[in-house]
Amino acid sequence: MSSSAPLFDSAIGPVLKAQNEPVLGYAPGSPERAALQRELESQSQSAASIPLVIGGDHIDTRARVDLAAPHDHGHKLATVSQAEGKDIELAIEAAMKARQEWSRWSLQDRSAVFLKAADLLADKYRQRLNAATMLGQSKTAQQAEIDSACELIDFLRFNVQFAQEIAAQQPNSSRGMRNLTDYRPLEGFVYAVTPFNFTAIGGNLATAPALMGNTVIWKPAATAALSNYLFLRLLEEAGLPQGVINFVPGNSSEISARVFGHPDFAGLHFTGSTTVFDELWLKAAQNLKSYKSYPRLVGETGGKDFVLAHASADVEALAVALLRGAFEYQGQKCSAASRAYIPASLWPALRQRLLEDVAGIKMGNVLDLSNFMGAVIDDKAFRRIARYIDLARQGAGARILAGGQADASAGYFVPPTVVQVEDPGHALMQEEIFGPVLSVYVYEDARWADVLRLVDTTSPYALTGAVFARDRQAVQEANGALRHAAGNFYINDKPTGAVVGQQPFGGARRSGTNDKAGSALNLLRWVSPRTVKEAFLPATHYRYPHME
Ligand SMILES: NC(=O)c1ccc[n+]([C@@H]2O[C@H](COP(=O)([O-])OP(=O)(O)OC[C@H]3O[C@@H](n4cnc5c(N)ncnc54)[C@H](O)[C@@H]3O)[C@@H](O)[C@H]2O)c1
Ligand SMILES: N[C@@H](CCC=O)C(=O)O
């Protein structure tokens, strides 16, 4: 990197308009299916070794943990190096060193790295990253394609567009002066702590601050290390300079203690559970006075996402939305439909159609592409979900209508489970389960207004939600009454599957800071703008006209 590179970009060329990456279908006989199957076979042959990546060095540590396939836990996929205290100090040093040059690169030059990364992912790396996501996180071909290929490519391309639009926003200048906004990166490093469930989210949390000129410490979820490390290698191939993103899998608490104790900590880019985000926020607060600047804390967290049906809803569309919304990726999307409110008049027809479809769902090893569902991520998740199913089985006021028999003998399999509850305040209607469990409350049609209040007040979260109605008045009422109940609100569609550039994603209340991943709003959190005024003809005496 040259130190004569420009300090900031005020002159930006025409903004490149991003397009969403088309989703491939993987139908039998298609070239993408054959390529994916070859890659799955190749990655299944032997266990990978995943190092730390600090300042461009790939470091194998003595402390390591094994990573297994969730759908076949006897199959070891990788051994993952574990960062310890001194590694974190080195990673922070590397980030601060790389910052000196990276923060001076022009936005155009930084953008080129991420645009090249998007192109590499759309082509050479597409099936490699999809296969790693399928094997490591137990996604089907469709679920991997919309995540590790399309959503991640979209994040990379749209963020470049949004960053350029931000840079082009400049203040007015009047005669005798010029004014500029210099979109500086934060003065320090950013800590990206990422979840297991979306390879795209991991990639975005690390790259969005980097695009804005920051350097990053990336702590991936242990169970997503295979796909996340492969993405880091892709970034290296795209030309990301050493030390800009430092990859440190390892013990979360130990890593966080070092990071939050460092005076150059400038921002947290987190996605995961509400409990962990609370913990990290408190750590930052405890250390606040030791930081150079007030850190930016961005966290997208849990959800208890609803589907509310009005008596005018289309039953077929509702049934499909519930099934896909609740059970795709085993219900492990923060956006997953988890509580449903169904009018009594529709329930008999809906129940029949939903249970018939659920009975036809195929679940199993994701190497078999005919499966609709794989396994949940690990033993801890399996046990948590099983506890909720037991609550439904044993507690009064709940009845299991489908599923319920979880089995962890070969992989962590939890079948799609539908529970009907009598009490709309049941724990199954309030708490995030993060598994394939859909709780249904059936209400009297005439109590629509009460149900709107119930949906709004039952759970502390406010991430996604959907209303199904053909009656326009009902749509309007739900849209108004549930304005603060979801950051992403859907009308006659499932509450999952937000697309970058189309439905910017994030929720409020206990679902996070709602900084909308994959939008300009998020990128603005990673800059600390400086206003520059230059006077061409500065005043040469201090007196004003009224003094004459
Ligand atoms: N709102 C969103 O956009 C969104 C998107 C995806 C997932 N999620 C949420 O994420 C959760 C599921 O993902 P998960 O199981 O990976 O979440 P998690 O909170 O268990 O883990 C998230 C990350 O935090 C790390 N972590 C855990 N304990 C930590 C600690 N004490 N200090 C520092 N880091 C720590 C984990 O290792 C992981 O990297 C769900 O609650 C889901 O709703 C939210
Ligand atoms: N874009 C995804 C985000 C899911 C989070 O886990 C969705 O909208 O379903």
TrEMBL record:
Keywords: NAD, Oxidoreductase, Proline metabolism. Its EC number is 1.2.1.88. GO terms for cellular component: cytoplasmic side of plasma membrane. Residues 64-520 form the Aldehyde dehydrogenase domain. InterPro entries: Ald_DH/histidinol_DH (IPR016161), Ald_DH_C (IPR016163), Ald_DH_CS_CYS (IPR016160), Ald_DH_CS_GLU (IPR029510), Ald_DH_N (IPR016162), Aldehyde_DH_dom (IPR015590), P5CDH/ALDH4A1 (IPR005931), Proline_metab_enzyme (IPR050485). CDD domains: ALDH_F4-17_P5CDH. Pathway: Amino-acid degradation; L-proline degradation into L-glutamate; L-glutamate from L-proline: step 2/2. It catalyses: L-glutamate 5-semialdehyde + NAD(+) + H2O = L-glutamate + NADH + 2 H(+). The active site is at residue 300. It comes from the Bacteria. It is an enzyme of class 1 (oxidoreductase). GO terms for biological process: L-proline catabolic process to L-glutamate. GO terms for molecular function: L-glutamate gamma-semialdehyde dehydrogenase activity; proline dehydrogenase activity. The keyword Acetylation does not apply. Belongs to the aldehyde dehydrogenase family. This is L-glutamate gamma-semialdehyde dehydrogenase. It comes from Parapusillimonas granuli. The gene is pruA.
